[in-house]
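@channel sequence for tomorrow's demo:
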Amino acid sequence: MPRPTLKDQRSAEILDAYLTCVARFGLEGATQERIAAEAGVKRPLLRHYLGNRDDMTAALADHVINAFAEVTEAVSVQFGSQGEPSELIDALFDDGHGHDPRLMLAWQALATAAERIPDLGPKLTQSYADFLAVIEGVLARAYPSAPPERIRAVAHGVTACAQNIDALVPISPPVQWRDDLRAAALALLASLEGDA
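structure tokens (generated this afternoon):
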């Protein structure tokens, strides 16, 4: 694999600064001034490395969607053909597993902007659907007698609980909320127990 160039490195640093700003201030609040300050560069360099505002937003969307694809693939590899749904819940709610809550916050900001950016909505929908399909697959394997509509409902509930943790990061929620959301996800799993 070729060594990354300085341009690649600087582009990645600016993209990371953009991610931070979007997570902190939303898509509209992530001004070029804030991004440049976060990246430690002069504002004109943003265009040099990532292009105009539309190019930057497209790069951010690709980055976020690719990051979610990596998470989806990791969950699929780890739990797709083995492991218990409770172990999946443990993994999704483990606050020490190194995930980046900025990604969910940026995903939400991009979803809000999807109405103005026509090709963004289908990409975000597909990234969510891919993750949801993996969760559904884990549940369907563990609860083969459960009706598909209940599997889908529980998969949505578990996914929403897990995503809610990152969505709440900006308000510094009580630690107990993570435990409560995990308990809610486990309660949803328990609703499938009779179908095992």
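heads up for whoever presents: The CA atoms of residues 83 and 149 lie 22 Å apart.
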